[in-house]
Amino acid sequence: MSSTVDSPISSSKIQIHQLDRLAPRSAFLLFYAGHPPHQTMISSLSARHIARIARQQPLRLFSSQDSLVVTNVHEESGVAVLAMNRPPANSLSLELNEAISTSLKQIESNPKIQSVILASSNPTIFSAGLDITELISPSDERLPKFWNSLQQVYIDLYGSRLATVAAIQGHAPAAGCMLALACDYRIMHGGHGEEHLPTIGFNETQLGIAAPPWMGQLMVRTIGFRPAERALALGTLFPPSEALNAGVVDDVITEQSSSESNEVLKALLPEALQSQTSNPVMIKAYEEAACYAKIPPQARVASKLVTRSESLKEMQMTREDDTQHFCGFITHEVVQKNLMKYVEKMKQRGKAKKS
Ligand SMILES: CCCCC/C=C\C/C=C\C/C=C/C(=O)SCCNC(=O)CCNC(=O)[C@H](O)C(C)(C)COP(=O)(O)OP(=O)(O)OC[C@H]1O[C@@H](n2cnc3c(N)ncnc32)[C@H](O)[C@@H]1OP(=O)(O)O
Fold this sequence. Notes:
Bound molecules: ligand L52RLTOW
Pfam families: ECH_1
Pathway: Lipid metabolism; fatty acid beta-oxidation
Structural class: alpha/beta
Radius of gyration: 21 Å
Distance between the termini: 59 Å
CATH architecture of the largest domain: Alpha-Beta Complex
Helix content: 40-55%
InterPro entries: ClpP/crotonase-like_dom_sf (IPR029045), Enoyl-CoA_hyd/isom_CS (IPR018376), Enoyl-CoA_hydra/iso (IPR001753)
Subcellular location: Mitochondrion matrix
Largest sheet: 6 strands, mixed
Shape: globular
Number of helices: 13
Order of helices and strands: EEHHHEEHEHEEHEEHHHEHHHH
Main location: mitochondrion
């Protein structure tokens, strides 16, 4: 038996072949059909259940509005998109970190996909870094779990078999910058006039904390020892042209979106990103991702291992110590005070902006 399901989140259709007999592979099947499912929702539905609903009515696998991450794959070009979707700022909570890791693994499990674009559904913020509210008066149970989920995102992105391209539409401070630096290629939007320049960098010292060694080393490996040493100490947030000069990003796009939407992007982008089909950062990110996807994968992955395996091994070896340091540091009275002050300032700024 074969049936077709219209998905409310895209115009494409999911072919369901003899779904009743494919119980353990149902999530896979849907994923291969171009609809990477939201992990928790899919795992709570049995294949039999899905097949029954599919015969009766359009199947709502997940709503793009309440998914922390939205994804889509384009098998023809071997490119996928994974976009963070946690309003208002894509700040990294435990749940967002887990969603990024899970979705990346799902995309990796499709052998037809060779590249992924890491993007944001927010046109002005790539990611605001760690969700600072996770750091204030945290519970003993959640804090290490939270930090572990961030370490895991780094390991998954930095060590991915996929070529990873960061489409940085807007701000990317601290752990937001880490996400971008863990990718293979970074394209940043040049901003809309001098007053609205997005920035990228490790600004931790400005918050009274220091980037952990693996994050600091990521910057060192990206821009070199001396510039990284200075940027880390000062907590420098680079505007686009400075980020390009320093090598924090590989490309800066200054042109405005055209009125014509790009046909491949229409097929590639998840619904939450359909407004970005004429966005020059997305277009460039797709071109770059498609270019990587054409390289023989074994050779591409082997070359990535040459530059990344040592630091990944080191990360695995020091992971537990890193978690202990982080939890000890964050729960220190002085650090807590600094963080509270910082959040207070952030809220005041938000209020002032709204009034
Ligand atoms: C050896 C021992 C090692 C120990 C290591 C110890 C610690 C290391 C720690 C960690 C490394 C990583 C750290 C981090 O990532 S900390 C987070 C750093 N991020 C920031 O400082 C960014 C703060 N945000 C901003 O600057 C701005 O919001 C922005 C991103 C530039 C966007 O500006 P914009 O004007 O467009 O938006 P708003 O400012 O109005 O923000 C919208 C909305 O989002 C809320 N928000 C923003 N950022 C965060 C955040 N990081 N966490 C939680 N919430 C955030 C903001 O409050 C607004 O909310 P509102 O309710 O007012 O709408």
